[in-house]
Write a structure and sequence with these properties.
Blueprint: H1 2-6, E1 11-15, E2 27-31, E3 47-50, H2 58-72, E4 76-82, H3 92-105, E5 110-116, H4 127-133, E6 135-138, E7 144-145, H5 150-160, E8 168-172, E9 178-179, H6 180-191, E10 196-199, H7 202-211, H8 216-230, H9 240-245, H10 252-258, H11 260-263
Parallel strand pairs: 1-2, 3-4, 4-5, 5-8, 6-10
Antiparallel strand pairs: 7-9
Helix pairs in contact: 2-3, 6-10, 7-8
Length: 265
C-alpha cells in the first residue's frame, strides 16, 4: 500500500480489521472477510493484489477472492504466491498456491504470479534463542536458501499492476543464497555478538513447535517445507528483481543491521 500511496494511486485495502490498516494518503480501509467476500467491495476497481495468510483455508479464501473479483469486472489480479508453487509438491501450501494460480488463470482476468522466496522477517521467529542463547536453531542441514526482503516484494507487486506485467509469472528472490551458518553470522555481526547455527533434527524441531502450542496442521506443513528446503528447492537465486523491476535486492546483512534491535530482543 505504501508503495502505491507514494505513487499517488488510490487504493482500497480489504481487511477483517480495517482499524489496523496504516493511514496513508489515498488509502481507503474497508472491512471484508475474504472467506465470504462481497463482489461489491471491488466496485470501480480494475486491478487487485491478492495476499492472505498461509492457513488451512488459504485455497478456499483466495479462490473466493478470485471469483468475486471476476464477477465484479476486475481486469487484472496480482497474486503473491510461493517460490515452489507446484500442484504435485510434497508441501501442502505449495500445492495450494499452484491450484490457486490455475484457478486465477482460468478466471478470464489477466494475472501476474509473484512467486516469492522465503521472507527475511521469518527469522524474527528465532529472536528468543538468538537473544537468549546466541543460537539459531533450525532443521536445515547445510542447505542454502535465497531469501527476499518484503520491501522488495512490495515494490515488485506495485509495479506488477501495470499492463506490461499481465499474464506473467515471476520468481522473486534476493541476490544471494545463504546457509544457516552464514545467516547466523550476519545476525551476529549486526547485533555485535556471536550467533551460532544449531542444526536441529526434523523430529526435534516438530516436537518443539507442538510444545509451543502450534496446531498440528501447521507443524506438519513446516515439516514438509523444511524437507523441501533441505533438498535445495529454495536455493536458486533469480535475477528478476533487478532485471524486470530495476530493484537492487536487499542483502540479508542489510536487513539484519536494519533490525538489529529486534534480534537483540
Amino acid at each position: 500500500m505504501a508503495k502505491l500511496s507514494a505513487r499517488g494511486v488510490r487504493v482500497r485495502a480489504l481487511s477483517r480489521t480495517p482499524a489496523r490498516v496504516a493511514a496513508l494518503p489515498g488509502v481507503e480501509a474497508v472491512a471484508a472477510d475474504l472467506t465470504a467476500i462481497d463482489p461489491a467491495v471491488f466496485a470501480g476497481a480494475e486491478r487487485a493484489v491478492l495476499i492472505s495468510s498461509s492457513d488451512p483455508a488459504m485455497q478456499a479464501t483466495q479462490t473466493a477472492f478470485v471469483d468475486a473479483a471476476a464477477r465484479a469486472g476486475v481486469r487484472h489480479v496480482v497474486k503473491l504466491s510461493g517460490i515452489v508453487a507446484e500442484t504435485d509438491s510434497p508441501f501442502r501450501f505449495a500445492r495450494m498456491h499452484g491450484e490457486i494460480e490455475k484457478h486465477l488463470e482460468r478466471s478470464g482476468m489477466a494475472y501476474t504470479h509473484l512467486r516469492a522466496g522465503e521472507f527475511m522477517p521469518s527469522y524474527f521467529r528465532q529472536v528468543g534463542p538468538i537473544a537468549g542463547k546466541g543460537i539459531l536453531p533450525l532443521p536445515m542441514g547445510d542447505a542454502r536458501i535465497a531469501m527476499i526482503d518484503v520491501g522488495d516484494v512490495a515494490e515488485a507487486a506495485a509495479q506488477s499492476l501495470a499492463p506490461a506485467h499481465e499474464n506473467q509469472v515471476y520468481r522473486l528472490t534476493g541476490g544471494e543464497s545463504l546457509t544457516m551458518a552464514e545467516v547466523a553470522a550476519r545476525i551476529g555481526d549486526a547485533i555485535g555478538r556471536p550467533v551460532r547455527y544449531v542444526d536441529l533434527a526434523p523430529a526435534d524441531a516438530r516436537a518443539a513447535r507442538l510444545a509451543a502450542g502450534m496446531p498440528v496442521f501447521n507443524a506438519d506443513a513446516l515439516d514438509e517445507l523444511f524437507a523441501e528446503r533441505r533438498a535445495g528447492k529454495e536455493a536458486t537465486v533469480y535475477p528478476t528483481l533487478r532485471d524486470v523491476f530495476g530493484v537492487t535486492p536487499t542483502t540479508f546483512a542489510e536487513f539484519a543491521k536494519r533490525h538489529a534491535a529486534v534480534f537483540r530482543g
